[in-house]
Design goal:
This protein is an alpha+beta fold and about 400 residues long. About 50% of the residues lie in helices and about 15% in strands. The chain contains 13 helices and nine strands. The strands form two sheets. It has a seven-stranded mixed beta sheet. The chain is globular, with a radius of gyration of 21 Å.
């Protein structure tokens, strides 16, 4: 048995712990929305359960589990509170990303406390000046989810060269401590309110070379951190790992929406019959359930294949990575469509304040705004590769 895989005892314990949190997450959901942040008690529960350790290297007390375990935990959390699952996903995944940086970066963050967390905003909006030993970084980044719970941030920018002032081939992620950035409290949205995805502002912070990571190293799956973090887990392409952390919360929320829809069907009447006896309502429930299972199986299958390649020491085929990237991006669109169908089928009660179906639908709808869920460029690239064109996306 793979000690790091889904069938391992530790994986089953982690998933069971996530499932057991359902009632308390539901109790805290209103607080999460009202305060525009995941409650501190929930973050403490995640720490206690070991969720932030799932992808963290073992040398820092982590579990270095297969990503499938991480995503299955996220699915369970999202059934009850999508904002909490979103923050868990995009913050805990950074414990994987730090492992591909130069090891000195991990020493900087975790030497005194390996439970320290990192938020992120990867948009290439930063302004970079090359200086001795590193860079000067300035800018303002939006959508840094969970930032109030974190002491460091990953921020995106392109390093200019004399020949190419802005070439995405020179994109890097910059690691910045809390003392070097300001959180701009401006998160005011209709869904995912509890993610606390505020802006982050930096003014001329020095970032040493070892606290940067080149996107091209991530594409080639050959990173500075692989010198010490040699497990197959840390040879995965970064964007494959990250984007699944994003769309998993959406898929888990759809599972919760289906449960809410079934509850409505048990009591609502459609004309002379109970909604649960209506053929249309039954068919829709079947469609949603089958779609959820299909997307979950696709997620597991794709990472099974990538981990098999890594364990065998062979490259993951680029054409497969293109398809996996599309498979992730399309999840949000499919979930919004299915959630919308259930909301409509639930009738006028679905639009009342306090409607669980409506609240979940708005969360799922908000997830479409994330760039990782904009399916068109990934579909175009995937289709082009099918037609014989070269891959045009290095964020796969």
């Amino acid at each position: 048995m793979n000690a790091y895989g889904l069938e391992s005892p530790r994986a089953q314990e982690l998933i069971a712990a996530a499932r057991a949190m359902g009632p308390v997450l539901r109790e805290r959901a209103a607080q999460c929305r009202a305060e525009r942040k995941v409650p501190e008690a929930t973050i403490a529960d995640f720490h206690q359960a070991g969720f932030f350790k799932i992808l963290q290297p073992e040398q820092w007390g982590g579990y270095a589990m297969d990503p499938q375990v991480f995503y299955c935990v996220g699915l369970e959390i999202a059934k009850h509170c999508m904002s909490s699952a979103w923050v868990l996903g995009v913050v805990a995944v950074h414990n994987w990303q730090l492992a591909v940086f130069d090891d000195q970066a991990a020493q900087d963050v975790w030497a005194d406390d390996p439970t320290v967390l990192i938020s992120s905003s990867y948009a290439p909006v930063g302004k970079v000046e090359v200086v001795d030993g590193g860079f000067r970084l300035s800018g303002q980044w939006s959508f840094s989810s969970g930032s109030e719970h974190c002491q460091w941030a990953f921020l995106g920018a392109v390093v200019p060269t004399p020949d190419a002032p802005f070439d995405m081939a020179n994109y890097r992620t910059f690691l910045v401590p809390r003392s070097d950035y300001e959180i701009v409290d401006n998160w005011d949205v209709v869904g995912l309110q509890g993610t606390g995805s505020h802006d982050v502002r930096v003014e001329g912070a020095f970032v040493p070379e070892h606290r940067t990571h080149k996107s091209m190293d991530g594409f080639l799956c050959d990173n500075p951190g692989n010198v010490v973090n040699t497990a197959p887990l840390y040879r995965l392409p970064f964007m494959q790992v990250f984007v699944r952390a994003v769309c998993t919360a959406t898929l888990g929320a759809l599972q919760g929406s289906l449960e809410a829809y079934i509850d409505v069907a048990k009591t609502r009447r459609v004309g002379p019959m109970k909604m649960s006896d209506d053929p249309f309502a039954r068919r829709l429930a079947a469609e949603v359930k089958a779609s959820i299972e299909e997307m979950k199986l696709t997620m597991v299958r794709n990472f099974d294949a990538m981990m098999d390649c890594n364990r065998a020491g062979v490259p993951i085929p680029v054409e497969d990575r293109v398809r996996y990237r599309y498979d992730s991006a399309v999840v949000a669109d499919r979930c919004v469509e299915l959630s919308g169908k259930m909301l409509k089928a639930a009738g006028s009660g679905g639009i009342r304040n306090g409607s669980e179906l409506l609240a979940r639908h708005l969360d799922i709808l908000a997830s479409q705004a994330h760039v990782a869920n904009h399916v068109t460029p990934f579909a175009v690239n995937f289709g082009g590769v099918l037609f014989g064109a070269d891959n045009a996306d290095y964020a796969i």
